[in-house]
Structures are given as C-alpha cells and as structure tokens.
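We treat protein structure as text, and this decision shapes the records that our systems exchange. Because each token names a local backbone shape, the row as a whole describes the fold. An entry from our holdings is shown next, in its original layout:
>
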Amino acid sequence: MPKSLDELYSDAQAAIFDADAASVRRLLKSMQKQAPDDPLTIEVAGDLACLQDDFDEGIEQFLRLEAMLDNPRAQGMGKLSRAMVIESQGDHITAYDLYAEASGLLEAAQEWLNWGTAMGRLGSLQQEFGELSEATETFQELLNRLDDLDDEDEYGHLLALANYSYGVLLRQIGELDHAEAVLREALRMYIEIEDVQQAAVCLDALGVIEQVRGNYDEAEKLHLESLEIHTDLEWNSGLSLNYGNLTMLNLNRGDLDQAEQYARKAYAIDQADGNRNGEAHFHLLLGQIESERKNFDEAEQSFQRAVALYEEVGDAEDMASVYSQIGVLYRLTNRLDEAEEYLQKASQLAEEMDHADGMAAVTHEHGLLRAAQGRRDEAVELFRQAIERYRALEAEARIEEIERDLAALESA
C-alpha cells in the first residue's frame, strides 16, 4: 500500500536531517505525484533546493507557502524556512523579523516543534543585537511552553538547546548561580540524548562562568574537558570556542605566551573555515595580549582590525568588548580624551544590553581613567561601584584587584 502524504513528508524530514539529498529527491517525486500543490510538498521542494545549495529556488518555494494566507502553518513554515536561509546568508535583521512573524503563526497553528525553533532563533538574534531583556522573555516563554508540553522524547533536542541558550544569557546578565543550574540541566539533557558535541559546548560555557567568578583552576578543567571531546570529534567550531576561552583564561592568569598560543590555534581554524567573527575575536585577544606586554602600537593595530571586522560581522557584546579595550589602551598611553570617548561607547552598549559583567568592567576602567585624570574622589566612587557590581557576580578575583587599586589610590 502506498504511503500517505504525511508519511512521505515525515520520511523526507528525516532524510533532510541526514542531508540525504537522493532520498529527499525520491520522496519528493512521490509527494508531487500525490499532491503537487500541497504545502507539505512545497516545503520539501524548498528544503531540497537549499540542501543542493540552490537558495534562490528554495526561497521561491518558501514564498509560495507564505502566500497561503488561509493556512497559518504553511505561512509560518514559509517564514521560518526563509528566515533560516537569510540568516545563513548574513542578513540577520530580516531574519529577526521573519522569526518573530513565524513564531506567531506557528503558535496559532499549534505547531510546537517548529514554533520552538523560531523562538530559539529569535532569542539568539535578540542576544546578538544586545536585546538581553527581550531575549530573556523569549527564552522564558519557550521554556515554559516546553515545560507545559512535558514531552522530552518529542522536544528533547529543542529543550536542551533552549536551556543552553538561556544559561548563556543568564551569565551575560550576571545571574551566575541561575546560569550554572540551567547549563547543568542542558548538559544533563545532552548526555541523555547522547549529543556529545553539544554536551562539550555546555562544559565550555560552565568554564566561562568559573572564569567570571575567578575560579581559574576549575574553569581550566572544564575548558580542557570540552577541548578533549571536540578534539576527538574533530569539530572545528567547538575547538575554536575552546581555544578562545582558554586564551581569556590565560590572559586573566597573566600567562601571555600560553594565551597567544591558544589564540593562534583558534585563528588558524577560523581562517580555514572563513569565520570572520572568529578572526575579529583573534585580533581583539591579540590586542589585549600585546597591550599587557606594553607593545602599544601593535595592540592598537590589532584592536583597529577587530573594530573593522566587528563592524561587518560582530554583535553588540563584541563591539562593547573592543571599545572597552581600546579605552584601556588609550589610558595606558596617556591619550585620556580618546580613552574617555571609547569607554563611553562601551558603557552605553553594556548598559543597553544590561550586560552585568561588561558594566562592572567598564565601571572599573572608568575609575582607573578618573585616577589618571587626577579626579580622585570620582575614581574612589567608581571603584566602589565596580566592587558592588562584581560582588553581585561573586567575582572575588576581580574584587581583590579593584580593592588593590582603591588602596593604592587612597594611600597616594
């Protein structure tokens, strides 16, 4: 007995997930014989075109779905699919709008798995654009809905990814204990569904939390555990992530040679993969390393390369980081007016994002700048504000550093 259209669609989705274009093509022919104008057939035709890198044809098919105004599921799937193509091509602003529209349509159609995908991508773009409060609401809504559905078998991958993304977001806004709990839940889920690659990504994210807290030995253990898994899997994106975070760890420890070794390993991977954001991050890290070495000309060149690249491919967090580091450099080289300019840019971005770690770091740096300007009372107040911000993050190593700066200023 021939398979129904729904059965053919289900088989086609499995083949698309496996990137098995030949099987998708065979299944699509059967679907087209049964119902050439059905939304399911059109969706698979678009997916197959994209699988074969014919993105113009794929978008044409997805637009056919969007034109089905009496069918919320078809419209939602058309917008979701088109958003994913457009995002992969670098147009994140248009993708953002399409994910938002798709989520509303798919919710109306009670198409929860695809609704969750749209919400997850929307939340990630909100993070990228520095809209951290909006991203928090998006991920909370997603997780609440998945909790109500109470079906880890059906939604396990989506639930794990939502927990991971939400955990990273919580770390950005400074809720470290909550972030750790959510990331450990994501880790548990990924282990349960045997997704070793993403479990290792969770380990690396937990290492970043320990870095913020100043627990560098525990952070190193987590980063290296993740690195070992990604090395075994030969997964370049994961390795680049590991090497970048190990670079920051060794920068925090003051081991500049080891930091540079890790940074260059990440850079080699990112260059080979054409990852321009990764290349920008390398120049940011190298600038910090050279600044610590007091090679200020080399540091400035690296930072300016990072700015140029981040202006093309970076997000709000990236730009805040590089502006802050340029401000540090200009303070160290006595270019105090320029330092003020860049620190104000960094401060504005960090505040717009409600980025707790970023706001604490910029507050500390503003205090150092005020001390260099001879504005002692303002510097003392900013140091105290920075201590309170870091106390909320339980970042003891940072607090001790600022207390040393404060003591030196008060004894001068």
